[in-house]
Amino acid sequence: MRYTINLDCKTHHVSKDGTFPILLRVSLNGEQDYFNIGKRIKDSHYDRAEKSIKKNINESNKYERLINIHKVRIGDIIDELNKKGEIVSISRLKEIYNLETNGRKSKCFYDFITQRIEWEKKHTSFKSNTFKFIESNFKQLKGFRKKLSYYDINHDFIEEYKFYLKNDLGLQYNTIYHALCFLRKYSKQLFKLGLISKYPFENYSVGSPQEVELVYLEPEELKSLHDLYESRKLLMITKPKSSKFARDFEIGQKYQDVLRYFLVACYTGFRHSDIRTLRKENIIGNNIVKNLVKSKVEKVVRVKIPIQENFFSLLNKDNPYGLIFDNPVMENSQTNKYLKQIMKIACIKKHITFHKARYTFAINSLILGIDIVVISEILGHSLLTTTQRYAKVVDKIRNKEMGKWKGFRQNNTTEIELNCSNCNRSLLKTDPGVLSQNYLTCICPNCNITTRFDLKINEPVLENICHAQGYQ
């Protein structure tokens, strides 16, 4: 392997104080690059023709000594890489040199991410919502550190960023998890492309997402929303005028429209994007037949959903514009704002967004006893395990309800004890709930007195009966 290391300053990079950086030009296997040793020199101290330090200056020995140290170090790095059997390239050599000397040439990590995102937009099938999520995490990272080079990303930086997300921004666990996954993704690409020598997330775990509680509408709540829609009370809602020159805005129609397609989503399990693209041609007979586009990648799944009577009236098959609803479906964010107000009007104290309609459909379908395989097909899940997430919620509900049996026989915690009214001898001891009758007649074996007891109050009601009356 042949290489040369020579002093070769770029004299056109002169700063205002009349100095320029001291550079070493390294040639290796036909490649060459410049290494900044982190010091600057005055133009008057440098021989441009000979590319050397002038001998007649006071600091010439100091400069020569420093330059030799860096030449030796570059040579040592090359030898070490050879001994390890690694392929030595000029970029690999410079990376190690910069890491050791801190004389790093700034390589902007944000520029790299921008380039990778543009590549993903051209070569992947990610949906636009996925890129919105990526851009959101990118903006969050830039908010933490305005400038970030390849070499700034290490364990300390990751911990600082995690602290910033949790304490400065007050984000929840899963949001922090996704932010760290974003950083890990593009750091890993840096490493795979050979732009950094050490993977920053080596021996660092970002953890796993926590399973959040699924918020959904229970059958009674769903029924009350449908009753609210059919009552048309929402149409009477107006937004008060902002000035005496304006007039009240009849906003009730927007509330009614939002509730209308939200109910359809609750009965079908459709996402907002599916509802928004629902058209007349999707109604075939008594079924909705539609191609669903899955969230992360544009994978199309065809579903067929029977139309039930409870939401037939919500569809308008006669709309001349080919839409299922009278008015176009609003954007998701605007829809959620109206849903928040609708839940207040319906006295439902839950954080309901449009996507909760999907949860509502799945969980209520399981409660009604619909086969989980059928539900999975309607939801467009590729794997049954995805649908089983909802089944876990139903299991919790079932366990909670079955827990009511625990107190079935514990209405009266006191043991029933019947004593003879004459000699007070114990005639019967039993647990509450064993005897189903209200009255019991017993004969005392000691004094032969027959006594009738009221089991509701555990007291005798008729004493000194001559003959046994038997059980009643």
Describe the structure in your own words.
The chain is an alpha+beta fold and 472 residues long. It has 4 domains: 99 residues, no CATH class; 84 residues; 186 residues, Intergrase catalytic core (hpI Integrase, Chain A); 50 residues, no CATH class. It is built from 14 helices and 13 strands. Strand 12 and strand 13 form a beta hairpin. The longest helix has 25 residues.
Protein topology:
Layout: E1 3-7, E2 19-28, E3 31-42, E4 46-47, E5 52-53, H1 60-84, H2 90-101, H3 109-123, H4 128-144, H5 155-168, H6 173-192, H7 219-231, H8 252-268, H9 272-276, E6 283-284, E7 287-293, E8 300-306, H10 309-312, H11 332-345, H12 356-367, H13 372-379, H14 384-402, E9 416-419, E10 426-430, E11 439-443, E12 450-454, E13 459-465
Antiparallel strand pairs: 1-2, 2-3, 4-5, 6-7, 7-8, 9-10, 11-12, 12-13
Helix pairs in contact: 3-4, 4-6, 7-8, 8-11, 8-12, 12-13, 12-14, 13-14
